[in-house]
Amino acid sequence: MKGFQNALGALADPKELTGALDLKNLPTDWLVDKYRDMMTIRRAEEAVAGLVRSGEAKAPCHLGIGQEAVAVGVSAHLNAGDKVYSGHRGHSHYLALHAPLDGMMAEVLGKATGASGGMGGSMHLFAPEVGFHGSVPIVGATIPIAVGAGLACKMDGKGQVAVAYFGDGACEEGVVHESLNLARVLDLPVLFVCENNLYSSHLDIHLRQPSNSVARFAEAHRVDHRVIDGNDVVAVSEAAADLIANARAGKGPGFIEAVTFRWLGHVGPNEDIDVGVRRSPGELTAWKRRDPVRRLTDALSASRGVGQDRFAGIDAEIVRAVDEAVAFARASAYPEDRVLLDYVYAGGAA
Amino acid sequence: MSAVSYADAIRHGFEYAMERDPKCFAIGQGLWSPWYVGNSMRDLDRRFGKERVIDTPVSELATTGAAVGAALNGYHPIVVHPRMDFMILAADQIVNQAAKWRHMLGGKVSPTIAIRGIVNRGGEQGAQHSQALHSWYAHVPGLRVLMPATAADARDMLIAAAQSPDPVMYIDDRWCYELAEELAPAADIDVAAIRPMVRREGGDVTIAAASYSVTLALKAADLLAGDGIEAEVVDIRQVNPLDPTLVLESAARTGRFVAVDGGWSTCGLAAELLALVAEGVAPSRLKAPLARVTLPAAPAPTSKPLEAAYYPTAETVRQRVLKLFG
């Protein structure tokens, strides 16, 4: 197309923004907790990748390794009364709220002990007790649902907010615009979080949109927005803190465009460097240098003196917990045949 | 007590449901200027306030999705689509979301949404203002589809839809709006208890229909009485999930079965009714082939003479029934 606008500049250039994070004046323990949350997501998704490779999980699994900072930075400002909705790449959004690991692994394997009773799989997670109210793979579908959850929050009058996570591909769905407009017109407490990883399933954003920044859609609907480095958990947290506080205070919706990159293919456990027009080993290698986890640990080591042994200890705990969750999932039973009809209507089968 | 019209009865349903349940609200296009929808929404915004009767931007999909979202968070929204044709723009939220979330999430959520779609035929409105698409939605497990044929059902099914633990599509037909009858006091209604019922008894032929087609069937039954034929008219009422008991019992008893539907034939409600009878009534009980009266397989026309040719009348139904008697 003619006249493509590189509105993101350095944010979309993997040679930039690869160094240690600026930790501002955030407490060390808080930051170490963010390391723990990001590594939990990463190790859990690595385990899911293993289940797909081994053939134990057949359902589509869309992994977000490399994108962990977005969900962790946003979730730092959410509580159990808030209402989070996600799409097909939703493991990080679920886990960042500290939803149960074993429920996720069991759901990935379609077991009755899963987060959705084994009826949904990886693409349909559910943990309302921590604020995770559902995810679906129809692109953009949970965005208006989150707007409705925001309407419920407003009617409830308890200062809760709704969150819609989606990707840059979803911004090509008309419902994004309807939803931004409706949330603005009704002044609803909704945070729209776009993880702009610069790719839809296989096409990079240059081939799909005339600009690589999707915040222009928020601008068009007069929704307060921030365009940030999505691999910087501190930057995500700062933007989320502002916009969530505004939403809780009745000022209406906000929009975060968090620029990031997924290390694996659209679906499944492989890097898929041959899928798509631009994705290449060089691009992937470059983006891995903007690793959100390493940039945090580098900063914590350099400016706060946190030793590698502390990170290693946390990582070992996480790996153990993930292994236990996988064992739990493997040992769990599949749903009984009767639920095939029992869950269709409230009273069971019609 | 005086007779209440179907259109007013719908409004009474809204009033009852919203009085009864502070979590019930209405949302959709035209609700602050409800000439769109006859008298069926008049002054609801004044009575309940614009926070609970929400007029929206021209966004069927996001509006319906927002209602699903509110429903998943403890509310009972009633979304109004003044023309069913435009409701197609919201199909993802109806078919992929509302109808499936309970099942997909292991029975842990109740999408308590009512979706009101209005059929708005005739009046030279043409192909995109006239469709009766109930059969599309009746195809989807998890979605209840209600089609009131009388003023009493117009009110009571609206209440049932608003109180339902399952997503409900409530479809009213403007050709029914002048129907009137005296109504008993409104009460809570269990949607699962809404089943087919006999609107007229007869022993010679069963005519099954829903919504405005029941009016046609009853008028045809009057004409047929003059021909010496007593027709039984079964009102289907809840077209999904469809309880076949009464249809099968009646068809087995009369031995002749005609389905009348305001939609098209292919994979439609009339086809479903015929299939139920074909599966559920022994051939030895049937005295004539099964028959149906539906729309021609064409979009709705605009000009008057074509409209007259397009829509079945009571006489169309009568003639189809007479053929069964050779």
Helix content of chain B: 25-40%
Distance between the termini of chain A: 53 Å
Enumerate how many helices of chain A there are, as a single number: 12
Largest sheet of chain A: 6 strands, parallel
Taking the sheet with the most strands of chain B, its summary is: 7 strands, mixed
Order of helices and strands of chain A: HHEHHEHEHEHEHEHHHH
If strands are numbered along the chain, what order do they take across the biggest sheet of chain B?
3-2-4-5-7-6-12
**Helical coverage of chain A, percent range:** 40-55%
CATH topology tier name of the largest domain in chain B: Rossmann fold
Total beta strands of chain A: 6
What's the CATH architecture of chain A? 3-Layer(aba) Sandwich
Could you say which structural class the secondary elements and strand pairing of chain A correspond to? Answer: alpha/beta
Outline the low-pLDDT stretches of chain B: none
What overall geometry of chain B do the principal axes of the alpha carbons give?
globular
Largest interface: pair, residues per side: A-B, 47 and 44 residues
Please provide a written account of the structure:
The complex is a heterodimer of chains A (350) and B (326). Chain A is an alpha/beta fold and 350 residues long. Chain A has a single domain, classed as Thiamin diphosphate (ThDP)-binding fold, Pyr/PP domains (Rossmann fold, 3-Layer(aba) Sandwich), CATH 3.40.50. Helices cover 41% and strands 9% of the residues of chain A. Chain A has twelve helices and six strands. In chain A, strands 2-1-3-4-6-5 form a six-stranded parallel beta sheet, with helices on both faces. The longest helix of chain A is centred in the first third of the chain and has 26 residues. Chain A is globular, with a radius of gyration of 20 Å. Chain A starts with 27 loop residues before the first helix and ends in an 8-residue tail after the last helix. The mean pLDDT of chain A is 96. By secondary structure, chain B is an alpha/beta fold. Chain B folds into two domains: 189 residues, Thiamin diphosphate (ThDP)-binding fold, Pyr/PP domains (Rossmann fold); 128 residues, Rossmann fold (3-Layer(aba) Sandwich). In chain B, 37% of the residues lie in helices and 17% in strands. Chain B is built from 13 helices and 14 strands. In chain B, strands 3-2-4-5-7-6-12 form a seven-stranded mixed beta sheet, sandwiched between helices. In chain B, helix 1 runs parallel beside helix 8. Chains A and B meet through helix 5 and helix 6 of A and helix 3, helix 5 and helix 6 of B.
